[in-house]
Specification:
1 helix; mainly beta; Ubiquitin-like (UB roll); two-stranded antiparallel sheet; disordered N terminus; five-stranded mixed sheet
Protein backbone atom coordinates (compact mmCIF):
# COMPACT_ATOMS: atom_id res chain seq x y z
CA UNK A 1 0.00 0.00 0.00
CA UNK A 2 1.39 3.40 -0.97
CA UNK A 3 1.21 6.03 1.81
CA UNK A 4 -0.98 9.03 1.21
CA UNK A 5 0.32 12.60 1.64
CA UNK A 6 -1.58 12.63 4.95
CA UNK A 7 0.45 9.68 6.29
CA UNK A 8 2.72 10.92 9.09
CA UNK A 9 6.41 11.06 8.15
CA UNK A 10 7.24 8.45 10.80
CA UNK A 11 5.14 5.91 8.91
CA UNK A 12 6.28 6.71 5.35
CA UNK A 13 8.74 4.19 3.94
CA UNK A 14 12.19 5.60 3.23
CA UNK A 15 11.70 8.90 5.06
CA UNK A 16 14.48 9.89 7.45
CA UNK A 17 13.10 11.38 10.64
CA UNK A 18 16.10 13.72 11.10
CA UNK A 19 17.61 15.89 8.36
CA UNK A 20 21.04 17.52 8.61
CA UNK A 21 20.83 21.13 7.44
CA UNK A 22 24.10 22.85 8.33
CA UNK A 23 26.67 20.24 9.21
CA UNK A 24 30.38 20.35 8.54
CA UNK A 25 33.76 19.55 9.93
CA UNK A 26 33.06 16.21 11.59
CA UNK A 27 34.64 12.98 10.42
CA UNK A 28 32.36 10.41 8.71
CA UNK A 29 31.87 7.19 10.70
CA UNK A 30 30.85 3.98 8.93
CA UNK A 31 28.41 1.62 10.64
CA UNK A 32 25.98 -1.15 9.66
CA UNK A 33 22.27 -1.12 10.49
CA UNK A 34 20.22 -4.25 9.90
CA UNK A 35 22.84 -5.40 7.39
CA UNK A 36 22.94 -2.12 5.47
CA UNK A 37 26.18 -0.08 5.45
CA UNK A 38 25.57 3.57 6.38
CA UNK A 39 27.51 6.65 7.44
CA UNK A 40 27.09 8.93 10.45
CA UNK A 41 29.28 11.72 11.81
CA UNK A 42 31.75 11.50 14.69
CA UNK A 43 29.99 12.59 17.88
CA UNK A 44 26.54 11.39 16.77
CA UNK A 45 24.61 9.23 19.17
CA UNK A 46 23.37 5.91 17.81
CA UNK A 47 19.87 7.44 17.85
CA UNK A 48 20.95 10.36 15.64
CA UNK A 49 22.93 8.07 13.34
CA UNK A 50 19.92 5.80 12.79
CA UNK A 51 17.28 8.53 12.47
CA UNK A 52 19.23 10.41 9.79
CA UNK A 53 18.65 7.33 7.62
CA UNK A 54 15.32 5.97 8.87
CA UNK A 55 11.86 7.07 9.95
CA UNK A 56 12.07 4.99 13.12
CA UNK A 57 14.52 3.45 15.54
CA UNK A 58 12.62 0.23 16.20
CA UNK A 59 9.14 -1.19 16.62
CA UNK A 60 7.48 -1.47 20.04
CA UNK A 61 7.49 -5.01 21.35
CA UNK A 62 4.06 -4.35 22.87
CA UNK A 63 2.08 -2.61 20.13
CA UNK A 64 4.19 -3.13 17.01
CA UNK A 65 4.11 0.63 16.42
CA UNK A 66 7.24 2.47 15.22
CA UNK A 67 9.35 4.07 17.96
CA UNK A 68 11.99 6.80 17.66
CA UNK A 69 13.05 7.36 21.25
CA UNK A 70 11.04 9.38 23.73
CA UNK A 71 12.92 11.23 26.47
CA UNK A 72 16.29 11.39 24.63
CA UNK A 73 18.19 11.28 27.95
CA UNK A 74 18.25 7.59 28.88
CA UNK A 75 15.42 7.55 31.39
CA UNK A 76 12.44 6.13 29.51
CA UNK A 77 13.88 2.84 28.16
CA UNK A 78 12.33 3.48 24.72
CA UNK A 79 15.50 3.49 22.63
CA UNK A 80 17.05 0.07 23.25
CA UNK A 81 18.79 -1.47 20.24
CA UNK A 82 21.38 -4.24 20.00
CA UNK A 83 24.66 -5.01 18.32
CA UNK A 84 24.79 -8.02 16.01
CA UNK A 85 26.58 -9.87 18.83
CA UNK A 86 23.54 -9.34 21.09
CA UNK A 87 24.81 -6.55 23.36
CA UNK A 88 21.94 -4.18 24.21
CA UNK A 89 22.52 -0.43 24.32
CA UNK A 90 20.56 2.76 24.68
CA UNK A 91 20.64 4.56 21.35
CA UNK A 92 20.17 8.00 22.91
CA UNK A 93 23.15 7.73 25.25
CA UNK A 94 25.63 5.72 23.18
CA UNK A 95 27.94 7.34 20.64
CA UNK A 96 28.26 5.74 17.23
CA UNK A 97 31.60 4.02 16.63
CA UNK A 98 33.39 3.10 13.42
CA UNK A 99 32.34 -0.39 12.31
CA UNK A 100 29.47 -0.68 14.80
CA UNK A 101 27.00 -3.34 13.64
CA UNK A 102 23.48 -2.65 14.91
CA UNK A 103 20.15 -4.44 14.70
CA UNK A 104 16.81 -2.93 15.58
CA UNK A 105 14.69 -6.05 15.54
CA UNK A 106 13.19 -5.10 12.18
CA UNK A 107 14.25 -6.09 8.71
CA UNK A 108 15.82 -3.16 6.90
CA UNK A 109 15.08 0.51 7.27
CA UNK A 110 11.61 1.98 7.44
Amino acid sequence: MKPSPETPAIARKGTALLQRVAEGGRKPVGFVLNGQPLTALAGDTVLTAVLTHSARLRFSEFSGEPRAGFCLMGACQDCWVATESGKRLRACGTFIEEGMRLVTGAEGLA
